[in-house]
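User: What would this chain look like folded?
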Amino acid sequence: MKIPVVKEWGSWAVFSSSCLAGLITGLKTQPWLAGRDFINVTAFTILGLAFLINSKNPLASALRSKGKKEHVLWSLFFTLTGLVFLIPFLIEGIKTFQIFAILITSYIILLSSGKEHHLATELNGFALLTISAPVVYFAVTGEVSWKLYLAVTVFFSAGVFKVRLRLRKTPLLRLIMIFYCAATAVIFYFANISIFILLPFIDNIMTALWLREEKLSTTGNMELAKSILFVIMIGLLWR
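Assistant: Here's the prediction, encoded as structure tokens.
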């Protein structure tokens, strides 16, 4: 039996980095001082989110095959298992996070329309992956941080434009990349988020200005290194 595990390692990197960002920023609030028992609920929450992410491939396959039984069953298995693990989190946080049902619905609509690799779908997918940051933060602290979600989402969404720039190498995409980095810095400033957290964006700007030939795997490794640096900067500078 072949288990349809998501093999898009970039997605797992974004998910893992977002979870770490939520965990680190949550722990910086020292929730144990308030007597909060967060260890079990946080562990179950991360595990549940991982199962939900893994439901993406069989869901997409089910939509492409117009409901082939095998794909539907795998999608249901990952979804239901993920929701079971998320029960401790949902009991407390479902009212706060129900707004994200809009993103889930729009993503399914885009997939069912055959637009899996369109820009809107990829950005929507990244916005779903980065939900793990405020969700884990909530599991740790019992509070929601929309500022954290904003920071993590706009940072990792830059990777979508970076890959497209690498593939197409058009002047327009170069300008979009530079504008995106500048706009993100402005957003961080007005949201009272340290712009030094955006240090990894130096690579994005350098790529837009001096586009060099490199393998796509090299770009992937660079994005992974940047996600690690981003989490480190979050840990050092988040307040």
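Residues 146-168 form the longest helix (23 residues). If you want, I can go into more detail on any region.
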